[in-house]
Amino acid sequence: MTYIxxxxxxxxxxxxxxxxxxxxxxxxxxxxxxxxxxxxHPDEAVYFITGGKARVTVDGxxxxxxxxxxxxxxxxxxxxQVTNIGDTEIRAIIVESKG
Length: 99
What we know:
globular, about 5% helix
């Protein structure tokens, strides 16, 4: 997987909250009707503070997801793009593994 840093590819959607030699914690915000740019995460844990309806594109394939407030997800490393197709802001905390 070629790594595309979400903070560099989508600085309006991602910011670094904390970082050390083991993990990086990001805040993600995607307003209604907006998208982030294609980006990657190494192994990650995601906590949705405010969920919503999203279209996620992975390897050219799209899937729609309902993300409830407080939902959590665990992912192995992946490259994807997120579009908020709902009417509420999607806001999440992402913890990426550096190991």
